[in-house]
Amino acid sequence: MRCVFKRLLGVVCVIAGAWSTSVSAAPQTSAFGSLLSSAIDRELTASWAAVRDQVEADARELSVAIRRPEMSADPVLARIALKVEPLRYAPLHEKLDAVNRLVNREIQYTSDLLASGVEDRWLSPSEALRIGGDCEDYSIAKYVILRALGVDEKKMRIIVLRDTDRELGHAVLTVAHKVGEVVLDNVSSALRVDRNLPQYRPIYSIQAGAAYAHLNLPTLRRHYFTRAQIALGDTPRSSESP
Q: With contact defined as beta carbons under 8 Å apart, do 36 and 28 qualify?
């Protein structure tokens, strides 16, 4: 992720330009106070395109395994299915909390170079659960498990972003909830709300198989985080400096 983030920084201006000139769709406010557009450089989503088919295969396999564990051909996914099956009819908040904690425990954090021998490669859940993975792999696994538990994929978003506190690239899963955008993050076992995380600046995201660019406007973000609400036990952070 660190290596690919250097490339992301190099094309942020290209994304912003594409966003400002795009007529394909009106911009939408999204997580972390960013503006959302369907205009995006395809190079940025090459990692997702490479793993998408296997992610869909894992999603189908896990959905079957949750209902009929004995029918699963993948012992790793079958084991996860047994752990999450009791959550099938649980409230959304309970599903999010349990899946965030489960994936953070089950996947061993490791760099793409150590796990796959390449500088940047996104992994399907069945791969990451076996060989380890980094931030985007945790996010993908949470996305697939929650889909299998009945959470609408249109409410979920895998977001590649910049963490300005740590000065590095990162990725999280966000889920639309009545309290706001709930953040499932491999650096926190607790659920957090996007309004309490001004250090996160989205670059692009994947939702329901489509890619979107994010533009961070200082004025909009200041307003967004100034109105931050305390939820899910979060401690509020001060808003961004002008």
A: yes
